[in-house]
Amino acid sequence: MTALSVQERQVEQEDLHGVRPQLSEDTEMIQRLVDELDMHLNRLKSGTAYEEAEATDSAYTKGMDFRLMFLRCNRYDPQASAAHIIKFMDVKLKLFGKTKLVQDITLRDLGEDDREVVRNGHLQVLRACDRSGRRIILEYPALRSFKTLTNELRARFYIWMEVAKSPEAQRKGVVMVTYGVGTLRERLRGIGFVEISKVALSVPLHVAGIHLATDDLRHYVLLKGALAITPAKLRTRFKLHHGSHMECQYRLTTYGIPREILPLTEGDEAILEYHLSWYNSRLLGEGSDGYVRWADSSIDQINEPRLLDVLFGKRINRDGGNRTLRSHIQALSMEYECADKTRKLEMVEQVINDIQSSGGRFLVQEDVIRDDTTFTTWRFLRLDEVRGRIHQAFRNHRRPRVALHEQLATIAATKGTPSASVFVEPGPNDVLFGRKRSNTGNKR
Q1: Average pLDDT of the residues in 231-243
Q2: What is the 3-state composition of the chain as percent helix, strand, coil, each rounded to the nearest 5?
Q3: Burial level of 267, CB count in 10 A (0-12/13-18/19+)?
């Protein structure tokens, strides 16, 4: 840090915490940067894989989307972007050969062993973003497995490039988290670190922060020593977290990565459900020619739900939007039971509006069969379907209380006590007796 100026340190810290203002783009500025990028590429391309790619398909190498990926990644520095493109093409040629040099890599371009590495969940793109709206790429070191290191390098390249295609990720950057605590601790002891680093540096992803969490003191000390000799500008983006699950998760929270978005069970074991859905959606979304047919903006179907979405289906994560829906149902259930039909309709509309205004959507899980293989995808519910499911949610919330009331009434009748004296839920002005009871009536 001391090797950086005060202004440089401030910029790096703002980037790490996600408070750095984004530079607005306009047509004139972009064209000027692209012209400068061309000039630097012409100076550097001789004898490189980029020169070969340009000769094969100049429309690909000169495409605006392709060039903007690198300009945004390098924060609109044309010279750095040109060097990055040269490095990217060299790595891509080495991993996939000449035939894929001017094509976007899809799952179908990967071999079976490559796809198994993508599927095993050691590297995941989380459904939720951090507090600054940046995508999070999570790695569980204990889940690393591959037949050859090349399988893993190709799988990592594919996953990272899937994120890099998003204009939002290009502008805001991404956050990487390596979570090696408890049973998720590193087992392969850094095998392929140099090769993985080369691929990571070639991909056009602006990494705003890298968080390394571990409970292994020896590993922590080694990482600390390695960071000491890392260039100052890169070192500011690394944050080491040592301790138990609770301690590491708390420290991640201070950087805008809350515990609830990490795919972990209550026992802090890895959850792969969403990652498998992400994988299947991409496998389903690619046609026989390898091009992606579906996008998140599709009217009827989407590949991936978001954290605030309300999800209906089997074996789904009940956090996020589903938790919000439950809180609405709990808060309004007593009024709903006493309301007439018109008021019930108004309450359902209120719940729908509240969830949609916060960015949530109502999705149902569906299985689609293609080529004798079943894939999971998501469909938007129609408004009448949403209303029906929320009405059902109110009824389902009422049933356990009604059953409990009937059970208590039976017990009271058996003991000769009038059933009317048994209440399931006290009123706000009732005086309560028992352990840890607090109510307005007690205060009087």
Answers
A1: 86
A2: 55, 15, 35
A3: exposed
Which stretches within 165-214 are classed as H helix? 167-172, 193-202
Q: What is the arithmetic mean of pLDDT over 131-154?
A: 94
Tokens (6 digits) for 13: 């810290």
- The whole-angstrom separation of Cα 48 and Cα 82 is 12
Distance of alpha carbon 107 from alpha carbon 286, whole angstroms: 8
pLDDT in tens, 324-358: 898 899 889 888 888 898 889 999 999 998 888 77
Report the alpha-carbon distance of residue 389 to residue 415 in Å, rounded: 40
DSSP state for residue 419 in the 8-state scheme: G
Q: pTM for this structure?
A: 0.70
**Lowest mean pLDDT across 54-58, 90-94, 140-144, 293-297:** 293-297
Q: Is the dihedral of CA 113, 119, 122, 125 positive or negative?
A: positive
Residue carrying structure tokens 């940067």: 33
Above 60 in pLDDT, residue 297?
Answer: no
pLDDT of residue 377: 75
Rounded to whole angstroms, how far apart are CA atoms 187 and 145? 10
Spatial CB neighbours of 229, under 8 Å, sequence gap ≥ 6: none
| Alpha carbons 332 and 351: distance in angstroms, whole number | 9
Question: Which alpha helices (DSSP H) does 186-263 contain, by range?
Answer: 193-202, 217-228, 232-235, 245-253
- Is residue 176 classed as helix, strand or coil in its secondary structure? strand
Q: Scanning the structure block, which residue is given the tokens 């692209």? A: 34
Which of these, 269, 283, 370, 272, lies nearest to 315 by C-alpha position?
Answer: 272
**What pLDDT score was predicted for residue 414?**
65
